[in-house]
Amino acid sequence: MMTTRRLLMVACMSVAGGACAADFADPVRMEAGGEPIKVEAPGYAAPCWDDIDGDGDKDLLVGQFRDGKIHVFRNQGDGTLAAGEFLQAEGETAIVPGVW
Amino acid sequence: MVDLNNDGFNDILSGSYSWNNRERGMAGTFQVLYGGDDGFKKPVDLTGTDDDVLIIPAGDDNITEKICTRPTAVDWDGDGDLDLVVGNFSGTFYLFKGESNGGFAPEPEPILANDAPLRIPGAHSDPFLVDWDGDGDLDLLSGSSQGGVYLAENTADTKSAPVYAAFETLIEPNGYPQAGGADTPNAPAGSTRIWVDDINGDGKLDLLVGDTARIVTYPEGMTREQSQTLQAEWDKTTQTIIAELQAAQEDPQSEAYQEIMQRYQAHYQSRSEFILEESTGFVWLYLQQ
Q1: Portion 14-33 of A in contact with B at CB < 8 A
Q2: pTM for the model
């Protein structure tokens, strides 16, 4: 997944070495379960990288606009993410109100 | 994720577009899903020290200041209490100061840069606070409706309260195609939402960027070239029908105008016979070198 190492020079109006000076590799689309991670239409993917299951490694949570649902992609500890599932709260799919 | 109630379990903090509250008008609330030893609770409104729901108190003539919220919880002023830094539709930022009892002040302060509201290019401010430049204080990064990632450097001499410079572009936007998106996108499109962490464990901060993108696929058995040929024919027919509509627009109630309009609508729907567009959102990883 993390293949391209060509440097991407970022646009930065500050002097070299300032806070904005940074070089990134080309962006890579995150995958889980061997497929690109996608949220439902209309989109608005909002990522969060944190340890949701307390196993010591960080997982990927992705919020979406539709129904205010949150995808959970668990870190499998080998550099890959498992296929996603919707976050559960009290036994049901968690739905953040006010997002539709 | 952050342990908002200091119970040893991480909680999930979320913004929202707007509540459905006819009496108080539109406003994006802040939702928290409290974590516990049996998982997460259903989301509840975050309240202030006055026990009322936290919202950005802008007037109804300034709705974009208080909808489409995006919160993050950090110790803004180094006093040991978590504070809330929030974004909104309009692209500005507010601070709800944390109190020693764990609550939040009901009245937020606007976050400034050079004595004016700190504002991202575009809309949909999306704050993430982290020491990006390694100088020991909290810089502010954000996505934007127009795409890209932006950095406001904290220029304060002390760690007590940040002082921000205006935003600079950290990642250039790649555009937000409204139609005819990329077959296989190779970079984030618009409506970027970000997270910052050392993803690959090399000691450097990396970026996760969520987006909203339109992707194009073709009906089964159709090649891209075949689709493009049909698209060109479709475009010509579109121009012809629009010319007919313009010629008949003096009397939009006439049978002739209505007949043309029906043909236009049927023609527009026929586009799905050779091109399929999907609106979605991806997550992109920018590894810092």
Answers
A1: 14, 18-20, 22-30
A2: 0.86
